[in-house]
Amino acid sequence: MRDRSVTSSSGTGSVWSRTSALLQRWGWHTSTTLRPIQKMPDATDTYAWCLYLIECRDGSYYAGITNDLEARYQAHVSGKGARYTRSHPPLRLIGSRAYENRAAASRAEWEIKQLPKHKKIGYLDAAAAAPSL
Prior knowledge:
By secondary structure, this protein is of the alpha+beta class. The chain has two domains: 1-38, no CATH class; 45-129, GIY-YIG endonuclease (3-Layer(aba) Sandwich), CATH 3.40.1440. 38% of the residues lie in helices and 24% in strands. It has five helices and five strands. The protein has helices at 15-25, 69-77, 83-87, 102-114, 117-129, and strands at 5-8, 11-14, 49-56, 61-66, 90-99. The strands form two sheets. Strands 4-3-5 form a three-stranded antiparallel sheet, with helices on both faces. Strands 1-2 form a two-stranded antiparallel ribbon. Strand 3 (49-56) and strand 4 (61-66) form a beta hairpin.
């Protein structure tokens, strides 16, 4: 059987072992099928994502999702957030609602963006009062 090791400027070793080491460092399993390594959820990840609503200085509302509300709001205030809040600076954070995962938060964001302005705050209140599944 032929030796499949390859010599390179960084040393010797098979192409697969070097590739495997890189993939593992990037968070991929290197068994027969490649798939990302799943992080085990812990107790603090129960509600990792939230929907938030910001009132801008011109009276408009901005809705978004994040997994770090304080940092995201500060990004909006400093002008490094969304393009919309760069041209419509935030006045205040109206409210937020936690969701179990990003998909649920994204669905809620889409729903709140479909509503007229006068119903958006009511959406946050109603969502907070509804029991989680």
